[in-house]
Amino acid sequence: MAGSALITGTCHCGAVSITVPAPPSEITHCNCSLCRRYGVLWAYYQMAEVTIETKGTDTYAWGGRNVDFHRCTKCGCVTHWWPRKAGRDRLGINIRLFDQALIEGAKIHHKDSAGTGLFH
Questions:
Q1: Which of 74, 80, 93, 110 has its CA 20 to 30 A from that of 52?
Q2: Within 13 Å of residue 75, how many CA atoms lie on the same side as its CB?
Q3: What is the per-residue pLDDT across 75-95, written as a single tens digit (0 to 9) for each?
Q4: Domains in the chain with CATH codes
C-alpha cells in the first residue's frame, strides 16, 4: 500500500481499526435480513489492500454459509466480513466506520437481497 493515500476507520470504541488504500467509488446497500438489521453499507476491497488491527472481534456466519461477519467485542459495531471459501480474495468493509465526508462522492448500489437479488 506504499505510495497511496491510506484512510482509516474505526469502530465506536477504537478497538478495531481498518485501513484501506482509498475511499470507495461504489458502495453496496443490501436489504437482506441481516444487513438490514446491521444497518451497514459495504465497500469491497481486495484482501491484500486492507489492514485490520483489532483487540478482539466476535464472528457470526449466517447459517454457516459464505462469510464471517465480524463485530468488535467491546462496542459491538459490525466492522467487516471475511469470506469462508478458500480462493476468494475480496472482503466487505462496513464503510460507515469511516469519516462520512470521505464517502460522499461514492455511488450507492441498492441490492435487493431480500427479493430479486438484483441491483437497482
A1: 110
A2: 14
A3: 999 999 999 988 999 999 999
A4: 7-111 (2.170.150.70)
